[in-house]
Structures are given as structure tokens and as C-alpha cells.
């Protein structure tokens, strides 16, 4: 899986977690409107084809790997503000983890997290954290049989409900869902 990264920087943006002296601080969101906010993040863990077969057959030694990874991702989203110092604690109204087993072009698991809240700040970090911890849990649960796993392509693909919404999950130039 190849990740692409734009080299464009939004020149009107400022680093909101820095004060005028450059010190880190938590952003004051009290003046922001309360809206429904959604974020979708994705990632991929590459596995050996034999590991994917064991996962598909639920034959790995640690039990139901997919269910455990899904629960870990949900729990992680709920703990994001404890893990990332300047994140606001949010009352999440939805966390969903979707795991798709993929045979080609590379064997592995496609991970997607959807997080939602009604609040004054977005849930991007919660979705990214959920994907990351889901991938790490898959790694932990499969490491006895596969030491060649690679976790990657973790990215935010959709954000809505805030000031700057976007959707990278649909490529309008090719009419394909990413």
C-alpha cells in the first residue's frame, strides 16, 4: 500500500496548539458551535498469506483475533485524551471498527474507524487512535506466527461537522472509492 502526501500547506492555518510564545497549550473551544462531528480513518496491516488464512479460519492461538482487535480500537478511541496530551475529552456517540480481510494485491487487514460526537471539536484523533490500536492489537495477536507484519497507511479520509470538512474516501478523478 503506497501512501501519498500532499506537499501543499494551508498558509492561512496556524498551529493552534501553540500560544504566542510558542508554548504548547490546549485549544479553547468554548466559542465554537456545537455540531455533530464525524471522522473516518483507515489503515492497513500487511500479513503473510498463511497468517491471513489462519485469521480467516479463526485458527490463531490467541482466540477471536478480529473481535479482540475491534474492541481494542473502540476502547482506544474512548481513551484518546488520556493518550494524546492536548486532545479534549469527548463524549463519543459512535465508534465503529470495520475489518476487511484482503488477499490481493497484498495479504492483510484493511482497518476503518468511524467516530462521531456532538460537540465543539472534532473526532479526528479518536478515529486515528482507534485505527492505530486496532492495528497494534492485530499485530500482538498474530505475532506468534508472523514476524513480518507491517502496519501502515494510517490516514484520516473523512471529516465533517467542523469548519474544514473534507472527504478523501472517494477519488472524483477516477470515480473510485478509496
Note the main attributes of this structure.
single chain, 178 residues, alpha+beta, Alpha-Beta Plaits, 5-stranded antiparallel beta sheet, two-stranded antiparallel ribbon, 4 helices, 7 strands, elongated
Q: What's the short story on this structure?
A:
With 178 residues, the protein is of the alpha+beta class. It has a single domain, classed as Alpha-Beta Plaits, CATH 3.30.70.
Walk me through the topology.
Blueprint: E1 35-46, H1 49-56, H2 65-78, H3 80-83, E2 92-102, E3 108-119, H4 124-142, E4 150-160, E5 166-167, E6 170-171, E7 176-177
Antiparallel strand pairs: 1-3, 1-4, 2-3, 4-5, 6-7
Structure description:
It is built from four helices and seven strands. It has helices at 49-56, 65-78, 80-83, 124-142, and strands spanning 35-46, 92-102, 108-119, 150-160, 166-167, 170-171, 176-177. It starts with 34 loop residues before the first strand and ends with a strand. It is α+β, with helices and mostly antiparallel strands and 178 residues long. The strands form two sheets. A five-stranded antiparallel β-sheet has the order 2-3-1-4-5. Strands 6-7 form a two-stranded antiparallel sheet. The model has no long low-confidence stretch (mean pLDDT 87).
The domain tally reads: 1
In whole angstroms, the N-to-C terminal distance is 12 Å
The helix content, as a percent range, equals 25-40%
Q: How many helical stretches?
A: 4
CATH topology: Alpha-Beta Plaits
> How large is the radius of gyration?
18 Å
Topology pattern, helix = H, strand = E: EHHHEEHEEEE
